[in-house]
Amino acid sequence: MELKSVNPTIKAPARNFTGDVYLTPIYNGAEPSRMTVALVRFTPGARTHWHSHAVGQTLHVTEGVGLVGTRDGTVLRIRAGDTVTCPPGEEHWHGATADTFMSHLAMLEALPGGQDPTTWLEPLPDEQYQTAHRRDA
Fold first, then answer.
1. What is the CATH number of the domain that holds 104?
2. Residue-wise burial string across 94-114, b where 16 or more C-beta atoms lie within 10 A, e elsewhere
């Protein structure tokens, strides 16, 4: 057993997010584990850019209300206690609603050799984000 101290929180890079997003790394597995876990905090209106994960991703909401969207137009409203699984290769985005904060645990696996399992794509346009709110309502 090993107790790990809390890691410093960093501001997420603007190249992958719209708005203010903060990351607190929780766990980066050592072989044979490839598990990565981070607490991600989104301010109102903040969201990821479109992206996908080679081995999929699990999101567990810890606070607030948010949205998760996929390329086919599906939008889920997520609340504290909800868990969403995104399958390998599925292009999606996620973030806070326009008027609330949202925090989630992001859990995914690294690729062998430490390769980045996330493929970052273009930003989600404001119009699409606003439509997601209406579609979800």
1. 2.60.120.10
2. bbbbeeeebbbbbbbbbeeee
